[in-house]
Amino acid sequence: MIIYRAKDYQDMSRKAANIISAQIIMKPNCVLGLATGSSPVGTYRQLIEWYNKGDLDFSHVTSINLDEYKGLSPENDQSYRYFMNTNLFNHVNIDKAHTFVPNGLEVNSEKACTDYNHIIATSGGIDLQLLGLGHNGHIGFNEPGAAFERETHCVDLTESTIEANKRFFASEEEVPRQAYTMGIKNIMQAKKILVIVSGADKAQILEKVLHGPITPEVPASILQLHNDVTIVADEAALSCLTELA
Ligand code: GLP
Fold first, then answer.
1. Is residue 241 in a domain?
2. What is the CATH number of the domain that holds 59?
3. Could you tell me if residue 219 is inside a domain?
4. Ligand 1 pocket: which residues have CB below 6 Å?
5. Separation of 55 CA from ligand 1 center, angstroms?
6. Residues with catalytic annotation?
7. pTM, whole model, 2 decimals?
8. Tally of domains in the chain
9. Which of 68, 85, 142, 174 could form a disulfide with 146 if both were Cys (CB 3.0 to 4.6 A apart)?
């Protein structure tokens, strides 16, 4: 595991975008596993800037996102499909037909998840998976207690996740209670994993993820067992890691 220390959010975003750019340059037809949330917004902004300069070509890239709220349509401005379109896809030359997000409108959970696992399997595998970190250690929407061996599944969101994500909705009642998420098994099968973490509010959980026991109670702790993980975190997020200070 490699840990890069960034000064702040902007520096973290630039370093993460560098790693993703290197992946695209080394393998133009790579499969990127992408994430939503506030953590990757700056990374996507930086990638768009380099694309506009002519330094990046997304035309052969495939993307597979981690998760989607169940019940939200792609046009809903809180859906993760909408987030990806507005924060990245609409601004680069990626072929939208090669961008995948779980189908939030599929009411049959089993079908939605089987279809998504099929997409992941037939893509040839994820070359680089980008991850943010939830305050309770969740990755994608794999909440504490999630079984490590699961593939894409439907989850009931925890109160703490609903609370954390309500800032994006008009009211807490509007936050969907369920989501489709890639499972830990799908994430662990990615060839490389890049985790971005910013802010003092993530410092305690980041310390647990990196140095605590590997337990389903801290879903991201499983990353200790992956052989190619890069963490890019800012100083605030690294503030509980004494040996790095
Ligand atoms: C959300 C997403 C995760 C994301 C996490 C952290 O619930 N499902 O994929 O990594 O929460 O979000 P943020 O980056 O906004 O802190």
1. no
2. 3.40.50.1360
3. yes
4. 35-39, 66-67, 132-134, 140-141, 161, 165
5. 28
6. 67, 136, 138, 143
7. 0.95
8. 1
9. 142
User: Each residue of 81-139: pLDDT tens digit?
Assistant: 999 999 999 999 999 999 999 999 999 999 999 999 999 999 999 999 999 999 999 99
Do the domain assignments include residue 242? no
Instruction: Supply 220's token pair.
Output: 């991201």
Split at pLDDT 50, 70, 90, the class of 160 is confident
**Separation of CA 179 and ligand 1 centre (Å):** 13
Q: Domain range holding 116?
A: 2-234
Average the pLDDT over 199-206 and give the result. 98
Contacts with 174 (C-beta within 8 Å, 6 or more apart), sequence order: 78
Ligand 1 centroid – CA 134 distance (Å): 5
